[in-house]
Amino acid sequence: MATVIQKTFGDISLDTDVKGDISSSDNSGLVMDGIDEDIIDPWTVVSKSATGVDYDKLIARFGSSKIDQNLIDRIEKVTGKPAHHLLKRGIFFSHRDMHEILNSYEKKKPFFLYTGRGPSSEALHLGHLIPFVFSKWLQEVFDVPLVIQLTDDEKFLWKNLTVEEARHLALENAKDIIACGFDVEKTFIFSDFEFIGMCPAFYQNMIRVQRGVTFNQVKGIFGFGESDCIGKISFPATQAAPSFSSSFPFIFGDKKDIPCLIPCAIDQINKYAFSGGGATVEEHKEKGGNCDVDISYQYLRFFMEDSDRLDEIRKDYSSGELLTGYLKKELITILQGIIAEHQERRKTVTDEVVKQFMTPRKLKLNL
C-alpha cells in the first residue's frame, strides 16, 4: 500500500453558483488561539497559525516523505506525461512508498488506486473534488483500475443521520464523483451499507484488520475516547479493507498481492479565511498582498492550470500592483467555469449510470 497526501482546502458547494465575495477577514475555524501544535486527526484539522498547517512537522509526525522534485521527475519519466499541477505546486505534498509503486510499474507489474468519500451532504464541495480530480489523472496516466469507497456507515456513526439518509447521500455523492469523468470500465464505486454484506472477502479482511489492531493503537492514532461508540472504534478497519486487492475477487480474481496507491486528503478547515490584501488601497499598493494567507490566491493554486499566469498573479499581487478585487474576480471566473461544467456533466448521470459504476464486476485492467 502506498499513499499520496493532499493539503487542506476550503469549501464551495458544486451545486451552487459562485458569485460575489468568497473571502472573509474572520479566521475562526482555521486558527485556534492558545494551542501549541496543529490538531490533526481524520475528522478534525485546527491550525495554530494564520498560514495554516505546518506540513513539514506533519510529515515528521506521521513518518511520511516529502514529494520532492526527484519524485516528480521520476513520475514524468515513467509515464511519459507532464506531472499534474497539483503535484508540481506541492498541493499533494507527502507520500509513503510511492517509489515502490513506480518500481512495480517499471517492471510492468499492476497496481490499483483506492480513494473514498464520506457522504455528509447532498453535493460535494470543491475541496472534496480535488482527490477525485487527481485520482482521475492517476488512472489515466498509469492506465489502472480504481475503487472508490462511499463510507455512508461512517457518517451514520459520526453524524446525526439515519441509515436511510446516509444511503441517500451516498448515491447523490456518487453522481458528483462520476461527473468528474471516470472510466466506467476501470472504476468501481461502492457504498459500505450496500456492498459489505454481499462480499465475504471484503468482510474477512475487515475482521483480519480488527484482530490485528488494539484499542490503545486506535485511541492514540484517531483520538477516540471512552465515550465514543464501539462502531467508531472499529471503523478504521472498514477503511483499511479496500487497500487489499483480495477484498475485490470479482476484479482481481485470486491475485492477492497487487499493490494499492491511495490518494487522500487532510480534511477541510477553511470555513473562514483571510484576505491577504491591505486594509486600504493605499496600504495595499505600498506593502503589497500576502499570497501565503490570501484564500483567493490559494484557490487559484488549486484550480488555475496555467502556471505562468499564476506566477504573474503572485508577482503582481505581492507587489501591490494587483488589487484584491481583481484577484477575486479572476478566481470567480475560473470557479464559475469549473462548477458550470461539472453541473452539466452531472445532469447526464442517471440512476442507471450510477448502477453501472456500483455493480460488482470485472474491470478492464492489465494483469
TrEMBL record:
Gene3D superfamilies: HUPs, Tyrosyl-Transfer RNA Synthetase. Keywords: Aminoacyl-tRNA synthetase, ATP-binding, Ligase, Nucleotide-binding. It comes from the Eukaryota. SUPFAM superfamilies: Nucleotidylyl transferase (SSF52374). This is Tryptophanyl-tRNA synthetase. It comes from Limulus polyphemus. The lineage of its organism: Eukaryota, Metazoa, Ecdysozoa, Arthropoda, Chelicerata.
